[in-house]
From TrEMBL:
Protein name: YbaK/aminoacyl-tRNA synthetase-associated domain-containing protein
Domain YbaK/aminoacyl-tRNA synthetase-associated: 45-166
Recorded superkingdom: Bacteria
Alphabetical list of InterPro entries matching this protein: YbaK/aa-tRNA-synt-asso_dom_sf, YbaK/aa-tRNA-synth-assoc-dom
A Pfam cross-reference name: tRNA_edit
Organism: Amnibacterium setariae
Sample GO molecular function, one term: aminoacyl-tRNA deacylase activity
Amino acid sequence: MTDFVLGGLSGVPAGTRPDLLAEPTLAALTSLGLLDAVGVVEIDPAISDTAATQEAYGLEAHQLVNCVLVGGRRDGEERVAAALVPASKRADVNGFVRRRLDVRKASFLPHETAVEASGMEYGGITPIGLPAAWPLLLDADAAEEPLVVIGSGVRRSKLLVPGAVLAGLPGAEVSADLAR
């Protein structure tokens, strides 16, 4: 079992606290056999946003990985991807992601669309449990981190995940060009 401690966060294996996971997240962790490989920690939902989490728990920006949903249209078809980028960087939405999706214009999904399509709470969206058809674009630096903080699908908790586990998720594509 991995030690799920990062900064001031100390988590337990996700399988021991399913109440802290969104339904799609729990289903994905279960089906992938990752309930013991991923940690979960309960937090105050008021400090769920990246900057507040970083400050409250003494974390470095590169240890917090944001999951943003990006979409665009091509020939009437909506194409969506999840971009996983450390808080120390910004996703290259109109360059790398746009080209990867093969769309003319890529943009962040609107709040309501992101919540409905993911089945997760806004501000807690995680790559674990997103629709299988969506590529998971992962920044190469995040993939190399021993442990990162990501959403759990709900605002009241965070997941502590080895970067290698993120890189091994179905549909994950690791790239050094995703973010700057």
